[in-house]
Design a protein that fits this description.
The protein is mainly alpha-helical and 133 residues long. It contains six helices and no strands. Helix content is 80%, strand content 0%.
Length: 133
Amino acid sequence: MPVKKILLSSLIIFVFIFIFEALLHGFLLRGIYESTAQLWRPYEEMKNFFPYSITIQLGFSLIVSFFYTVIVSEKTLKSSLSFGAFLGLLFGWTQLGLYAYMPIPFMLAQAWFFGVFLESVVIGADLGLIYWE
């Protein structure tokens, strides 16, 4: 098992996720979150959960990197993009489904779907470039 590549890809994916999520949720979707403020923790309270968020993002990065090494046998850019697209559909579809359970605007659920899909495709590309044989 390529432990060094798993750790390297996990770090790269973590940095990407951290930046992407900050831009998506902290900048692009900020207006929607402000208009639905009654659904979310107050900003000051959310700051207390920052270490939790970092831990989740780091754990996700490790899990995705490990699954990639186990699941994808042909480590090409094409197969890596397919892996990322599959992850994006899987996780994005789940995000879209939250609309049925949470009183959020459909536009927010759609933004979550497309955000997760794009994020996952980029993660697949990152993995492909790191593991390219």
